[in-house]
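Limitations
The structure tokens in this dataset are predictions for the assembled complex, not deposited experimental models. Users should treat interface geometry with appropriate caution, especially where small molecules or nucleic acid strands are included. An illustrative entry is reproduced here so readers can see what is and is not provided.
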Amino acid sequence: MLKNKKITILGLGVLGGSYAKGLHKAGVAVSAIDIDEDALQTALSNGWITEGDTDPAMIKDSDIVISCLYPHAFVKWIAENKQYFKKGALLTDVTGVKRAVMERVNAALPDGVEYIACHPMAGRESRGLAYADENCFTNANFIIVPEHNSQYALDTAYEIAHILGFGNIVELTPEEHDRMVGFLSQLTHVIAVSLMNVADNTDLADYTGDSFRDLTRIANINELLWPELFVLNKDYLMKEIDAFTEEMQVFKKLIADEDYAAMQEKLRISTRRRAYFNKKKG
Amino acid sequence: MLKNKKITILGLGVLGGSYAKGLHKAGVAVSAIDIDEDALQTALSNGWITEGDTDPAMIKDSDIVISCLYPHAFVKWIAENKQYFKKGALLTDVTGVKRAVMERVNAALPDGVEYIACHPMAGRESRGLAYADENCFTNANFIIVPEHNSQYALDTAYEIAHILGFGNIVELTPEEHDRMVGFLSQLTHVIAVSLMNVADNTDLADYTGDSFRDLTRIANINELLWPELFVLNKDYLMKEIDAFTEEMQVFKKLIADEDYAAMQEKLRISTRRRAYFNKKKG
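Predicted assembly:
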């Protein structure tokens, strides 16, 4: 039961803040560590956290530590502050890439501290506590990425996801997770960004319809977070970029050759596959 | 004034049907030609058209003919039936590519028949009269592509757009139009289709968030219409595909090199440009 545990959130950004607000709303008390005193003060005065500190040593009596830091900051924080974890503490996180982060965090953690990797797939373009919104988890996917974890760690991950109201809770291996986000999330962000960067076509904004706006909505992107995610998953992501640009070139050849039958077949397949993704909408 | 003219729509598909319903609603009587007797009967019994026929000779007393045919069918229909136009008749259309279609239609038309090219940019994934909806024009762009046109032809194009409720009416040259649709519309459809075709990733549908759904919505596509549009604009479109895939490869290189500063700059530019497209939303 989370309610009997001492829980500390690392990082009160948009996601850490949303966790704090969601847990608070469910009657689960949490404390928080952040380098920003103002963020701590805001969370304290709203009652979202019961304690706040800039000192990492604050985790020393925490049963559960939830890192809501960016990937590089998370790995660095653990390396620098691992000595403060108490024996039997459970560490979890929200990081959007898994293999590289899990390898580094597990290598740094002392014996007696267990890490269970989690990825709440809740969209967020804006940064900072001011945009924290515990409702962003409704109907979203919560991915648990277990690796030699205890039943207690697994149960805790599920309990966090349930309390925060996630719609779909799934277990994946680190490889399955990283392949999935490489295609569904990272490739799509590189596409949207590249479409905006290929040329300054802002003079065309007057003629823009919903299609273009839908396709580039995620080109509004956190430029500090995403390059870290791309680099930490670069083997999968670079393969996806190559496969995708190759497919675009194959289609270009069909246009050049005026091969109507082959284009029609491609469009029939894309329509059929896309319908499957529609059906799955939660 | 449209109300004093005899108007005939060619083709009662989703767009021709939407034109008929919209004009009828505004008190403008129209007749229609279609090869599908059932479509004519449906439109007649609903009062959307006052006359319907499968015989092209029906246009012989029409003041205004509005082609809502696919590009190839439009060009072929004009070549085969140009003798039925009366002297002084005005031809307009809805075709999504302009240079190639205007050249072919103008070459085929007899003296005394004027063609004014128009492109109502109203999204439509579904086909057929059953999906016709005169409300799809609200807030949409109506592009007029004049070339040696009379004031009467221009005034008529504006009147049609106003009556149907378009939000934004713009004049472009054939080249400006085709560059614009090549980037905003055709490239984006090739991207969405290629993203669905690159691999069968339907096993990932469970994990899909709004980003992926937004990016691939237009992968649900009319496989008969779009290959024609792609081919008739292939010079511009193939250049856009090359520029876009090259930009994706440039970004891949930044990931490979772990060049955080350069990636951050790309993401800042894409966020800034995307904001401009947001501001312009009607």
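Some entries come with short summary sentences. For this one: The radius of gyration of chain B is 21 Å.
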